[in-house]
Every structure is written in structure tokens, then in C-alpha cells.
Amino acid sequence: MDRKITLAHGDGGELAHKLIQQIFVSAFGNTRESHFDASFLSLDSGQIAVTTDSFVVKPLFFPGGDIGKIAVSGTVNDLAVAGAVPLYLTAGFIIEEGFLLADLRQIVQSLADEARAAGVRVVAGDTKVVEKGSVDGVYINTAGIGIARSGKTVDPKTIESGDVVITSGTIGDHGIAILAARGELGLVTDLKSDCAPLNRMIDAVMDAAIAVKMMRDPTRGGVATTLVEIAEDFKVTIQLQEQALPIRREVVGACDILGFDPLYLANEGKVLMIVPKAEEERTLAILRRFPEGANAATIGEVTDTENGKLLLETPLGSRRRLHRLSGMMLPRIC
Amino acid sequence: MDRLDSGQPRGMSEALRIIVRGRVQGVGFRPFIYQLATKNGLNGTVQNNMDGVRIIWEGQRSVILQAVSGISRMKPRLSRIDKVETTWIPARGFTDFSIIPSEASGQSSLVIPVDSATCADCLKEMRDPSNFRYHYPFINCTQCGPRYTIIDGLPYDRALTSMATFQMCDRCEAEYRDPSNRRHHAQPIACAQCGPHVTLFDSTGDRLASRDQAVEQAAEMLAIGKIIAVKGIGGFHLACDARSSESVERLRSRKGRPRKPLAVMCRNVAAAERIANVSEKEQAVLQGPEAPIVLLRKNASCDELLSAVVAPGVRTIGLMLPYTPLHHLLFDEGSYDYLVMTSANPSGLPMIFENEGILDALHGLADAVLLHNRRILHPVDDSVVQVSEQVPFFLRRSRGYVPDPVDAGHLVDGIVALGSQMKNTFAIGRERQAIIGPHLGDLEAEESLEHYQKTLDHLLHWTGIKVKAVARDMHPLYRTHDFAETFDVPVIEVQHHHAHHVACMADNQLHKPCFGIVLDGTGYGPDGTIWGFEVLHGDASGYQRLAHLRATPLPGGDRAVREPWRNAAAMLINLLGEEGSHLADVLFPEYQKEIRIIDRMIENKLNCPMAGTCGRLFDAVSAILAICRVSDYDGEAAIELSDAFDPDEQQSVSCYPFQLTEEAGLLQIDFSSMIRQIAYDQLNGTDRAQIARRFHETVVAACVQTICRLRQRQPALSQTVVLSGGSMSNGYLSRRLVQSLEKQGFSVYIHHHFPNGDGGLSLGQLMIAACQKRD
Ligand SMILES: [Fe+3]
Ligand SMILES: [Mg+2]
Ligand SMILES: [Zn+2]
Ligand SMILES: [Zn+2]
């Protein structure tokens, strides 16, 4: 087999067949489904949850993961935070002509390993090869299918004052890890991306019968943008405690130099939960049993159910309103 | 006073109509005119109307003229006369003199009087052991005392003030009702028997003493170095002995303000003169009823008489005189001549002004709290004034001046201008009047925005204005941006520096298009870059941007504003490439690692907005000269840079080289060669004062050359130049700009009645929005 992807790898002929057999089918191990144009899946009765996401990551490999791993965790987490149990994935690859086969193999393997670890099966796939320069290396689209948990729903309408907001761990790791991995900034750090599927940890919380009122994974736009959306959508005011935010020293340091706010950095392996105050400790204890939840912490609370604002309380005791991530952080000091 | 009309009426008795404009309502002006008329035997009428006070005097011409001259000479203490207009009119044969009702019904009751420092008459009584108000800390009269801060509703009447809860005793009431008494209708009238009183609490909330003993004990505590929170007219101060470095340092560490200069209250003018140069004009401002903080030049003995940590790194010191009876008593009872008096609120948060929760709010700040039970309804900060070339200008316009309206010169009715993000004031238009609200500071905190909203609501309610349009800055991240949407009226966006330009025009009653040199911090430009070194031409109806400073990256945005070295490094790298990068390394060796990253941030355009602003240019030079690399307070780098040389020393220095380039018809000022040479001068050990002075001169020369070139090309452009923007607070810079431009034949105007900085922005926004609304 050639070392690089050529346009012929995508023309449906011999080369394409070889590529699929040697890289994809062997990694996913679903030989049965791969003989048909579509897969037949059996699901327990009930509601089905479906989601899809496309992954464009630069660089493709970074400390703590690669695009294959993110393509699993991103979609699995979207299902899990919606309150569904993820079961199946599909994966579509758009590959740039000239891409190294060894790299592709590594990405596909990582996608397969991650899916296995998360307990989901990759049941359909597709590859396209496009001319050099039309994409940057490889793009992946994944769709996820899951089933709704019976009898246990996440119901944001029940949010009330006093409910607490919990993060499953430190904030901003992925954003800084990626920035450092690009190498453009000369930023040196040991930081790893947090990218990980969270469905098992979320299962544990849901199985413990904790009344989770809202869950979201704070990916693009970070914790602030995610919580602003929750606040506005459900007309609740959320007040964060600046001092309570778990942020790694390396992230603080990098933000310091770059003038970034960790609350707006992307995360790929974190979940934010709103739970009743009474279940705060129990929730934290369950999260902390998992390696991806080791740094779980309460970061704020719901203070009213009318206004729909996200506020940050500073150590001085003043409150600052936070908005969605905006295009550029324009200075305002005049 | 304006020239008298010389028209010759016929007959013995002649009649003159006089319109007095300025602060002439709610300050006892009509009774004063009444007395002046009866003293001179003149008949006629006086009334308040929208223009001001209108007088008709009939009698002999010479007598009338003499009385007119008495208006300005003997005017009531709290009044301010901007203009006296006179017209001879046919006599109607009045048989007496009377105060007649206002022409526009009810309008005169809308006057909101301002707070005023204790007058000499009241002070004399307070110190007279035989007077029944001896040592009474709330003595006041019609010519002094609290006003705006205690008003709950209009018209201004005791029942609608926070004095309503105090029942006047017989003695006070007799004075209040006696038309010949100087406390006739003094709404906050009170005495020890019937009025508010003071109490001293320790930091745990235990009562230490009340009334006279409270003042005595507070004075004793201050004398031994304690920090006392003192409730004043507009809010709470933290006070401590300004001689004691230990006390001042303790205050600084408790407030978390390591270097920001602190204001000092002096026992009297003589005490102020012992530590600072006080000109006649400065003395008049210090002693005025507004009693602002006046920024004065320290003299040689300042560091002997005051702790050096009161105002480190600067040549000036902010001084004020006691302005409430309680302040005077604290000095009368104390052994000190100087007290640091700084606002008690944590920086960035609204003023503390209510008794409720006060001990919690002051916890860890004050050793004791000197409280009183007269409620402050509207907190207001101390005003800050500087006198340059005999003319005062505002750094902060608040207590004593707010909410005095001004004549906008145009109809501005129903316009609300929301002001800036920092140093915020808002402005509201009523008919032809502009009312600029109190200094509200930084709007970033939610608490500040809530306070802003309340303050604006009150003034809107009092003035009964129906809001027709809202003006806001273009900056999408200013807190006013979203707030503007809550009014449900059209929103008019105003460019930041256009607003500064027009504010200065309005301040000087200019109406024809003119040049504006706006030297400022950071303001949002419609092209998405940050502006702040602008040469504009225009008026309220529009502007052209004719020249500006070449933009350089601001790595990390606001972060680079707080840490001027970042901006300096970015400027060096961006303007001088490899050489600049090397210079940055040598100038800031402790930041080499960060400089590499900043270099890459610029290259990758990551979080690097482009900015061409005077404030940031000053910051960068300040950092290069190692004067200020990380700033503790807003404007520190620029202020300390301008204080690096003696501005009064007459010395001519040459300019650094600079270039004027042209791009798409727009002149661009390029200081690359200056920045390079300043860096080398610094590395070669050239005298810093010399570099700082040359830098100032270069900025002046660049502005003057730009204006001259623009006018040479387009002779149709104006001969008038207004100077505005935050950097104009730099007295040397604005003075040299005025001198140099005047030498080239331009008429030059600076701000007088409103701040040149962002505190004046709302006035400009108001004028621009009103103009758009009219069209
Ligand atoms: Fe400004
Ligand atoms: Mg997603
Ligand atoms: Zn008085
Ligand atoms: Zn009384």
C-alpha cells in the first residue's frame, strides 16, 4: 500500500476497497455491518436520540488526543449531556490528497479505541478524497445514536434559586493545549487536552437518581458562553464564584500572557451540571470517582429564575456580567 | 456681562429687560434681585423662566445701570452667572417691584439645587459657644448645606427630602418662617435638639460615643493613626492622618491601592499653602461653595509635612478644604492639619452611602465609623478640578456641580446620552438644557450598572422627560450597548472621538464646523480598529477623519493597557521589526519569554487589536523609560511620564524625528523614528526628564504640522481647533498645543465646564444625537 493518500483512494475502485478493509474495517471490527449499504441496528423501545457533529481540528495530533478521539468524545458527549445513552456512531472522513496513510491509520485507530472505551459501536462509515488544498489534512463527521433513559429526564424547567452549578473538572485545558500544540506562539506547556467521552461518568450520576436539571458540555465558547445560553434559554440567573473556578496553573499562566479569559476557552471533556443544593455533595463524590471527574467542583449557583443573566462574582465581592464569546476582545479602557 | 444696548428710549422713566443666565434658580436669586431693586428704588418684576431669570427694571437710566452692575458683583454665593443680556424696552409704568410667577408654568420648580460647602456665617455660629447651634455638625442655611443628595422628589421642599423625618423645633421653625432670616426656607434646617446627630461605632459595631463625644473621640483616634470612615454629604470617606506613613500604608493595603495618589483634606487654606503652590485662582476654587478637590503642584516642604506615600511618583497633590460642619469639627478637635480622605468604596464599585449594612461594607477597612442619621439619597463623589493658565478644568465633575443644567444652544429635548464605559456620566436633554449626571465611574460591575440605572431613572423622573432617542457609544462591549436597547426608542450610535470633539464645541458654545484634535485612550473606530489620536473636522451633524496615529497591535487587549510594557514591546516589534524585537529584549529583560510570545501573537494576529491612540503611545514611552511598566491605576503611566520633567521650567528642546505619510487621502502620523530614538536614548542613559520633554514636544509638533498641512491643502477648512480627549488632562501637552496652534493663527478652545476625558463624552453624544434627530 502507498504511503500517501491519492485521489484514486477515493474513486470506489480497488484502492478504495483496500483502504476501507485495511484501515477502517480492521479498526472497527464490524465486519457484519460492512457488507451492506446500510446497517441494521436493534434498539430497546423508547425514544431515540440522534446527533451529528463535524470535526475540524488543527493540529490533528495534540497532547492528550487527536482528531479521531475528539470525533468520538464530541458526539458521545452531546448525546450524554442530553440525557441519552449513546450506543452507535457513524464516521465520515474527508481526506486531503497526499495525506500520510500512517497518520490516517493512527487517527482511525484512535477513533476506534475511544469508541470501544466509551462503549459505543461504529456502525457505518464513508471516505472521500479531495484535491490537495481543498481541506486541511482530514475532516471527520460523526453521527451518534442513543436511547433516552427510561423515566429519568433532564428537565431545565425545574431549575430554581439555590441550585448549584458543578463542573466535572478544570477549565480551559483543551483550548490552551491546542494553542500550544500549533506551535505558532512558542508557548511551552505540559498541558494535555481534556478530550474524553463522559458518558460513563454521566451514567453514574444519573443512575444514582440525582435530579440533574440541566447538563451541557462547554466546548466552543467555553464555560461562559455555554452558561449564558442556559441562562437566556431558561431565564435563570447564574452567579459564578471567580475563586471557585478550578483552573490549572498552566492555563492561568498562558491566559495571563495572551490576555485570554479561561471562561471562554474550549473544553472537550467537561460537563456542567445544575443540580439541587441538597445533592451537591453526592454529585461531586460520584464525579470524583472517575479520572475525568477528579477535579469536579461547584462553581456557582442559580440566584433567580427571572432575569437570564450570567454573573461572575469577583474576590472583591462585585459582580460582573458575562456575555457570549465575541469576535475580538476589544479593549475598553479609555 | 455683555455690552449694554445703547438704544435711546424717550421719557424720564426708562425700562431695561435683563436676562441672567447661568445657575440662577434655586439659589435665592429672586429675593436678591428684589432686595437690589428696593435698595435702588426701582420698580418692575423678576421671574424665573426657561432661559434663566428675567428682570424688568424701570427708573432712571443711571440708577438702573448701577443696579445692573451690582448683579454680578453681589450675586448670591451659590449662583453662577454665565451671561447677562440687556435690552431697553418701552416703560410700562410699574408702581412697585414684585416677584411674579414663572412664565412656563411649573418649570422653575424643576430646578434641582446642588450641594454646597458650609458658608462662613454658619461656621461662625457653629464656633460661637453662645449660639444654640454651637458645635452642631449639621448647621446650614439657604446658602449652604446638602441639596441634591437629600432630595426625594421635586419641587425642592423639606417634606420631599431625607430631612422629612425630623420634626423642626420651635426655634428652627421660627427661623424657617421668618422672611428676614438667612434660614428662611432653608429646607435642611436643624439643630441639636431637633435634627440629625452623629454616632461613633467601632469595627465590630459597638457604639463608642455619640454627639459631641463621638466627634472628639474620632478626632483622638485619627490623631493616633487610626483609620476612620466618615459619613459626609455624598458618601463615606476613609480618613487618616496624612503625616503618618504607617497609617497611609495601612489604608493602602486595606484598599488594595498601592500607588494611586490619595486626596488630602487640609485644615484651611494656610495649611494647603504650606504644602503646595496655590495661585489666587486656585485658592478661589478651593474655597468655592462647590469645594472640589483641586490638583495642585506640591512645593518643597510637601514631603516634610505629609507622608511621601500619599501621592508617590507625581508632582501634584489633590487638596480640598473641609466642606461639611462635621469636617470642620474634626479639624477643630484634632491636632492634625491634613487628613487623607479617600472614598470608602472598593475601586470599581459604586459609592457606599447607606447606613444599612455599612459595618459589613466597611469591614476590614476602617477602625471606626463616624455615622450620622441624615440619609443620603443620592450618592455623589468629590469633584476634581485642575487650574491651567488661570482657567479651571474638570477631571471629575460631580459634587457641587451636578445636576446643574447648561444651555445646549439647540433643542435637545428627550435625548438621553448614555456616556462611556469608564469615568461614566450620562446626559439628558430637556428643551434646550443639557443635564449631565454625576460621575458614575466604571460601569463594568453589575452593581455599577444597577446604580447607574437608578440614578438615571431619578433624574428622568424629576425632569419629567419623555425619552425620544438614546445615544450610545459604538463600542459593542460597553455596558451601555445592551442597556440602550431597554428604552424601546431609536438608538443613535455615536463615534467616541466625534463625541469628544462635539463635547468641546458645546463646552465653548461653538456651532460652526471646526478642527478637533482628540488625544485619548482607546475608543472604538467604525473601521474596527481602536482610535485615540485623531484629527477630525466637523460639527454635531458629522465629521471627517483627516489624520490619525499609525496603528500598532495591542497584544491581549485591556491587558496591554494595564501593563504598558506589553504595549511598548508590541510597538517596538511592529514598528521596527527585528531591531525593535531586540530593543524590547534589552529594555525589558525580565519579560524576554513573554516578548517572544507577544512577537508570535502579533505575527498570528491572535488577540491583537490594532490601536492608534495617544494614551497608549504615552504608556509605551513611559514603559520604555522604566517610569511605569505595570500600572496600578487608570492613567498612571501617562501621568508619571508627564511628571518626569518640570513643566514650568522654560526650556526649548528639539523634536524627535517623525513622519507624516498619506494613505487614501488620510494623513498618518508615524512615530517609528521617535520610538527608535527614545529607546536608544534610554539605553544610552540620556536624562529621562530631557527625553520626556522632547517626547511631549514631538507630539505637539506632529499635531501642529498635521493641522497646518491639512489647512494648506484645503483652505476652506476652519481656522478653529478644539482640543479634547483624556490626554488633554496633561496640562503641559494642552498648553503647548494651544500656544503653538495660536502661533499659526488658529483659534484654539479647550474644555472648561465639562471634563475633557470620558466624563464629558455624554454631552457630545447628546448634541450629536439631537442633531440627527432634528434632521
Ligand atoms: Fe475617551
Ligand atoms: Mg458538539
Ligand atoms: Zn450657611
Ligand atoms: Zn431645631
UniProtKB/TrEMBL annotation, chain A:
InterPro entries assigned: HypE, PurM-like_C_dom, PurM-like_C_sf, PurM-like_N, PurM-like_N_sf
SUPFAM superfamilies from the UniProt entry: PurM C-terminal domain-like, PurM N-terminal domain-like
Chain ranges of the PurM-like N-terminal domain: 37-148
Residue span(s) of domain PurM-like C-terminal: 161-310
Recorded superkingdom: Bacteria
Family: Belongs to the HypE family.
UniProt-recorded name of the protein: Hydrogenase expression/formation protein HypE
Organism: Sporolactobacillus spathodeae
Automatic annotation (TrEMBL), chain B:
Organism domain of life: Bacteria
Assigned EC number: 6.2.-.-
InterPro entries: Acylphosphatase-like_dom, Acylphosphatase-like_dom_sf, Acylphosphatase_CS, ATPase_NBD, Carbamoyltrans_HypF-like, Carbamoyltransferase_HypF, DHBP_synth_RibB-like_a/b_dom, HypF_C
Active site, renumbered: R30, N48
SUPFAM superfamilies registered for this protein in UniProt: Actin-like ATPase domain, Acylphosphatase/BLUF domain-like, YrdC/RibB
Protein's pathway: Protein modification; [NiFe] hydrogenase maturation
YrdC-like domain location: 212-400
Residues annotated as domain Acylphosphatase-like: 15-101
Presence of keyword tRNA processing: no
Catalytic activity: an acyl phosphate + H2O = a carboxylate + phosphate + H(+); C-terminal L-cysteinyl-[HypE protein] + carbamoyl phosphate + ATP + H2O = C-terminal S-carboxamide-L-cysteinyl-[HypE protein] + AMP + phosphate + diphosphate + H(+)
Sorted UniProt keywords: Hydrolase, Ligase, Metal-binding, Zinc, Zinc-finger
Enzyme class, broadest EC rank: ligase
Family listed: Belongs to the acylphosphatase family.
Protein name listed in UniProt: Carbamoyltransferase
Organism: Sporolactobacillus spathodeae
